[in-house]
Amino acid sequence: MWRKLFSRLPNRPFSSSSSNPEISTLYSFLQPSIFALKRDPPLSSQPSTKLPAQPPKTLNPDDITSLETTLHKSLLTNNTDEAWKSFKALTSGSAFPSKSLTNSLITHLSSLNEVHNLKRAFASVVYLIEKNPELLGLETVESLLNSFKCAKTAAPAFALVRCMFKNRFFVPFSVWGNVLVEISRKHGNFAAFLRVLEENCRIALDEKLAFMKPDLAACNAALEGCCRQLESVSGSEKVVETMSVLGVRPDETSFGHLAYLYALKGLEKKISELESLMVGFGVSNKRMFLSNLISGYVKSGNLDSVSATILRGLGEGDGESLHLGEETYCEVVKGFLQNGEIKALATLIIEAQKLETSTVIVDKSVGFGIISACVNNGLSDKAHTILDEMNTRESFLGLGVYLPILKAYCKEHRTAEATQLVMDIRNSGLELDVGTYDALIESSMSSQDFQSALTLFRDMREARVSDLKGSYLTIMTGLMENHRPELMAAFLDEVVEDPRVEVRTHDWNSIIHAFCKAGRLEDARRTFRRMTFLQFKPNEQTYLSLISGYVSAEKYFNVLMLWNEVKRNVSIDGEKGIKFDHNLVDAFLYALVKGGFFDAVMQVVEKSQEMKIFVDKWRYKHAFMETHKKLKVAKLRKRNFRKMEALIAFKNWAGLSA
Asked: Where would I find the At1g68980-like TPR repeats domain in this sequence (predicted)?
């Protein structure tokens, strides 16, 4: 069927031109030439292979051995010029180095990534193909062709393959075919590749050489060149005919290239024939076929067919996703917008939504693909215009048309607009997933748009989103890093009774610490009271933050009040009460010494001794001397006997007694 479909076509060459422009490029590569070429005679399609040499002389076995030894040593020492000189001397005397030395020399010359030595390698290979092809290894030929690819020079590669054909030096297609495909793609030389491929296929059939048959990838590359670059219907169908003769079975890529060309040329009948052939060959995946059809229609400006193809694909798939790629949607958007067809794009989305089932993944919907393409190409304003056009028609807007714009807002930190769009989405009855909320809240926090983040979190709660932990932590962390404890306190108060949010003592501590650090001690104390009222258990970190804040403000009496509260609930491990560790002992001792509450100081000392907590007395000696240096025991005796006793006890403990 594959062959019969196109066998009616006349047998034409792949290229419409009989000239070979790569020949002049080849000779440009070879100048200044290492061949004995004369500039006056007309150029032929095959390069001369005479190596420059002195007049021929007969070499005796000793001479040959000596030259081979020199050649070998030169290769080992990377003395390229000397190696080349030895090779020329051997070939001038009608002798050849051993096969291993010959291939080593050519591989060495090919590997140097330098044009002059590439010329030497090319000359050597062509000379050997004509004079003694048995010496050439396939790996050597492949290495040279790869060097041409790396050097970004195409003409010598094609000339070398034609030379092999001319001299009946037949090597497997896998040795040279894929390299020429890559070279053709890079240089746009598909016309040259098609001529070489045609000659290769003729030889493979005439000589019955299966190893010279091109594989499917090469045939598809030829189709790609005919369909995409040359835009030649006759050329592409000649490749199809060749594939049929060689027994190369087409795949979805083959049909895709042809679909592009036929759509470009408006050959609807041939497109229908292609679809029938796909069924016959068992090609069930039509994604590539549809993508190429769409690309061809876009390039030809046939936008009606673009829309019809997308909608037909949805209909044939029972409303399931087309799985078109981002590149295809970008082509569609550019094609429509260049022709000012915003209304047509809106219509396409509306009609696609009618066909898409409720099970279609949001980011696989047609609406998502089109709006994403607008956004990704910096056309967010056009995306908005499409949405406005759809709203004007009072049509239902699926979540897919909103998400790309929301993502763009996140990326551009346009968080206020994103929040408003979320409200619109919710009002339309659509639900956002937790990932979208998390991304929007994170973007809002990084932009310091705290009100938008808090509004979005409220919306998450109202939407009954089950997982609030991620966004809760994002907000709390962001507010703490930006020193906004008042917002933290208000936020925590708002969500503390929501079972989906795990509020812990640590969260309250963060707020208290932030207030204390900012010197807002009354707010810190108010938060502390709220924390205990809601039955959150303060821990050592809670008290450390409060003590630090009170010491900074020299409010030592407040520390004394804290101690009176703490001393009733201390434990060494924190399991049955507040963990009384070295840090907490140190903080209380320092603050109470500074405040002159020596009775409480000795209570702390007694508790630390009871719990075997080590205390460094030097720090408190220094604090006493700094604050109470002039305090006399005699004066205290007259005023307050109990304080006097506490002071004496402290001085004795600290080693301050005379």
From this structure: 57-213
